[in-house]
Amino acid sequence: MALAAGVTVTAWASAFVAIRAVGPVFGAGPLALGRLLVGGLALTVAVLPRRAWVRPTRREWLLLAVCGVSWFGVYNVALNAAEAQLDAGTAAMLVNIGPILIALSAGALLGEGFPKPLLLGAGIGFAGAVLIGFSTAGAGSRFDLTGAALCVLAAVTWTIGVLTQKPVLRRLPALQVTQIACVIGAVACLPWAGGLVDALGSAPAPAVAGMVYLGLIPTALAFGTWAYALSRMDAGRLGITTYLVPTLTVLMAWPLLGELPPALALLGGVCALTGVALSRWRSRPATASPAGPDVAHPDPAPQRGRGRTGGGPDVTVPGPHSPERRS
């Protein structure tokens, strides 16, 4: 699971850099469609030979449809549009308020409650997101504020996707869930098919290669490893690992794109990380003995209990060489 989470985090971090690099060539909608078509094709090729396709129920089809349209469709379009206004690292920081939203939603919808560390962490994380938004807005720039709002939309659709994906993974294979959701997302983006065809006609080879990379690695591979890990661990706990994404994105974007977020955005990122750490903090429960809460340690004294006559608990059963036997 740790390896799967590591692959997901690294691939998703690279996606922010790739989108920033090739997004202007294709546009938000066409790039999302091209990425999902490549990813959906790769996932279909991976699923077919397995012959382990499980037929979803009506409820599972509904959850998969919501996951595909929201997380694979709307999320990708919103993120692509946001990165036309924001640098890759700042966009990654803003989108990654998602784990806080997942934790709060799980408390409301899954009965996990709202412990004080969770509420405190959510408040600090939200303050961090606000700092990032204002730092990238510049001197009242309307477009930067729009980019920040699109990142928040991406975070919300990510949350919806995880909450609808988790129940389906209890019965369906992770690879199949990813494949179905990706194909549904591609169908939702079909209105941009004309734009994709036009862009492919004039796009340079490196930009096309970047789109194919987005479909194969951050989509087919990373969403697949995410689903695998999510099927085996708690959604909130797994979501915390994605807070490595902004840091990795900044490290990748600095040499490749020459971008570094403003200092206030970095401070906001630190606040977001701190908030999530607090939201997941739990006091260590006291360790109970297997024998029950009233027995902390085994009694090192000689066995007490019933003698040969079934006596009371204070009767010690003498051994064969004890003084009592010799007397």
TrEMBL record:
Q: What are the alphabetically sorted keywords of the record?
A: Membrane, Transmembrane, Transmembrane helix
Could you give one GO CC term from the UniProt record?
membrane
Residue numbers spanned by region Disordered? 284-327
The record's annotation in InterPro entries points to: Alkyne_AA_exporter, EamA_dom, EmrE-like
- Residue ranges of domain EamA in the record: 4-133, 146-279
Transmembrane residue ranges? 31-49, 61-79, 91-111, 118-139, 145-163, 175-193, 205-228, 240-257, 263-281
Indicate the family of this protein: Belongs to the EamA transporter family.
Q: What is this protein called?
A: Threonine/homoserine efflux transporter RhtA
Taxonomic source organism: Pseudonocardia sediminis
